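Problem 12. The chain below contains 227 residues. Write out its predicted structure in token notation.
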Amino acid sequence: MQPKLTILSGIPLFSNLPPADLKHIAAIAVDKWYAKGRTIFLEGDQGLGFYVVAAGRVKIFKVSADGKEQILHIYGAGHPFGEVPVFSGESFPANAEALAESHLLYFPKAAFVDLISRYPSLCLNMLAVLSKRLRQFTLQVENLSLKEVPGRLASYLLYLAEEAENPAVVELPISKGQLASLLGTIPETLSRIFARMRDSGLIAVDGRRVVLLDMAGLEALGQSGRL
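Solution.
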């Protein structure tokens, strides 16, 4: 396991902070480990602290009255989650579950708020992360409410391309069943759309590896939503 200071220095939330500040942050961080499938918190639980993924993957999701799951976010290493309720004083608005064996850093609310009051640069980093999170959530709401499923998938692949070292090749971070939930559809429909996008020359698919063959075509599909 990597030392806390090494983990913290690679997390965007804490980037550009001097070593002395990172030592203060490491002092309040609590290591937590979760097996695959284990619940981290439930919707309605009191937000007494927030988490950062040190290793592994976490899904944030809601469950409808009829038991249907809607994935809201998938977070990998370096991403914080559960931070908004901590600062708003409210309960968690969704559920969190480990998608893989995960190492999390837990930051108790009182201790972290005290650090922010003493180190304004940390507050600025937090605002930057929350702003990016708001942009991602706005795009997701737009995709689910305004676009057909092909447009949602094209937009998601383009989003992955923005984050990838090689934008022409992306790796799906979750299973296609989980991706279907994230995009508000069912696995069978998603599989048909992948096949149609492949047959149209937009992509090539090999398991979770997706080659983006026609970026302009994907961008047009993301805008129109129709394949």
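Discussion. The mean pLDDT is 85. Students who got a different answer should revisit the alignment rule from Section 12.3.
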